[in-house]
């Protein structure tokens, strides 16, 4: 790895990224252009010290997961992401495999919708990006090991991810959500037959989860669609919301949003979460040199 080149690229792309595009709101005008190192660390899910060491060339072997997280946080175009991988001495993600790249326009759009819980998922239902309202509704996923940060592990696993998912109810029945995820994973294995990680994920669930195996045998084509969901929240009780799954042309991503009709009980509970989220973040020190954090990745 050319450590200096990698650090130079990170600094160069951090300096060009407008904080608003990463979900930060300026409250003062006295700041240098670009994203602060602390903000990049927050968005990428890394420590500030580690980002500093990477930029200074003192950390010389970032993993593919770290490089991918930085590429998403810096909102790199695909060819820039590949350049960052190569500068770290790593092969860029190959065609024919499930891609974790989130186009910059998608990240900017999601970052500007800070009042709506949003999560962005890859085709294997890895959680790639989330905002503070997602944390307020579902909890903070950073405590889940990255290899298990998938909806499959949340529904069918036995590790930390299984404890993360708050109770979800659907009018379609108790297994409707799980069936939709299994059907979409079944479609993904057909689209990405060369992806060994996806194959291992699916075969593991088929061996360890009777529910997954039963649904795998029963489901047909994936039918991703919006539906009403009730989330059992530990602070505000049940919140009934419209959950929609949006897709991105040219990118095999799923953008999951939660909204409620104005004046509904769900809207009132979401408003409460917005207010308490802001208070808790402020109390935790999220106000940083005149910038208030609104988005996460």
Key words describing this protein structure:
six-stranded antiparallel beta sheet, alpha+beta, three-stranded antiparallel beta sheet, disordered C terminus, 297 residues, 434 Repressor (Amino-terminal Domain), Beta-Lactamase, 2 domains
Helix content: 40-55%
CATH architecture of the largest domain: 2-Layer Sandwich
Q: The CATH topology of the largest domain, please?
A: Beta-Lactamase
Question: Structural class of the secondary structure composition?
Answer: alpha+beta
Major beta-sheet overview: 6 strands, antiparallel
Organism: Kineosporia succinea
Domain HTH cro/C1-type: 34-84
Protein name: Transcriptional regulator with XRE-family HTH domain
Pfam families: HTH_31, MLTR_LBD
What does the model show?
The chain is an alpha+beta fold. It has two domains: 3-93, 434 Repressor (Amino-terminal Domain) (Orthogonal Bundle); 104-287, 2-Layer Sandwich (Beta-Lactamase), CATH 3.30.450. Helices cover 45% and strands 15% of the residues. The chain has 13 helices and nine strands. The protein has helices at 3-16, 37-44, 48-56, 64-73, 78-87, 104-112, 132-138, 151-156, 160-164, 176-191, 196-208, 210-218, 265-283, and strands spanning 24-26, 118-121, 127-130, 168-169, 227-233, 237-248, 251-259, 287-288, 291-293. The strands form two sheets. A six-stranded antiparallel beta sheet has the order 3-2-7-6-5-4, with helices on both faces. It has a three-stranded antiparallel beta sheet with strand order 1-9-8, with no helix packed on it. A hairpin with a 2-residue loop joins β6 and β7. α2 crosses α3 (48-56), α4 (64-73) packs antiparallel against α5 and α7 crosses α13. 37% of the residues are buried. The model is unreliable at 278-297 (pLDDT under 50). Residues 34-84 form the HTH cro/C1-type domain. It comes from Kineosporia succinea. It holds the Pfam family HTH_31. This is Transcriptional regulator with XRE-family HTH domain.
């Amino acid at each position: 790895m050319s450590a200096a080149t990698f650090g130079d690229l990170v600094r160069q792309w951090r300096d060009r990224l407008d904080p608003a595009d990463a979900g930060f709101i300026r409250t003062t005008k006295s700041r240098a252009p670009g994203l602060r190192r602390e903000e990049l660390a927050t968005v990428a899910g890394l420590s500030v010290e580690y980002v500093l060491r990477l930029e200074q060339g003192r950390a010389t072997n970032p993993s593919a997961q770290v490089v991918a997280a930085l590429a998403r946080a810096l909102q790199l175009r695909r060819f820039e992401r590949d350049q960052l991988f190569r500068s770290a001495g790593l092969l860029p993600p190959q065609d024919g495999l499930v891609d974790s790249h989130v186009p910059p326009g998608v990240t900017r759009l999601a970052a500007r919708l800070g009042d709506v819980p949003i999560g962005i998922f890859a085709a294997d239902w890895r959680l790639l990006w989330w905002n503070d309202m997602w944390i307020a509704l579902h909890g903070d996923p950073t405590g889940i090991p990255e290899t298990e940060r998938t909806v499959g592990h949340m529904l069918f696993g036995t590790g930390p991810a299984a404890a993360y998912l708050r109770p979800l109810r659907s009018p379609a029945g108790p297994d409707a959500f799980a069936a939709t995820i299994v059907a979409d994973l079944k479609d993904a294995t057909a689209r990405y037959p060369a992806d060994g990680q996806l194959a291992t994920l699916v075969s593991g669930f088929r061996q360890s989860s009777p529910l997954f195996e039963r649904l795998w045998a029963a489901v047909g084509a994936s039918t991703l669609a919006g539906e009403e969901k009730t989330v059992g929240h530990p602070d505000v009780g049940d919140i009934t919301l419209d959950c929609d799954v949006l897709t991105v042309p040219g990118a095999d991503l799923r953008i999951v949003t939660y909204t409620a009709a104005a004046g509904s009980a769900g809207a009132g509970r979401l408003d409460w979460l917005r207010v308490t989220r802001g208070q808790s973040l402020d109390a935790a020190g999220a106000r940083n040199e005149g910038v208030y954090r609104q988005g996460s990745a």
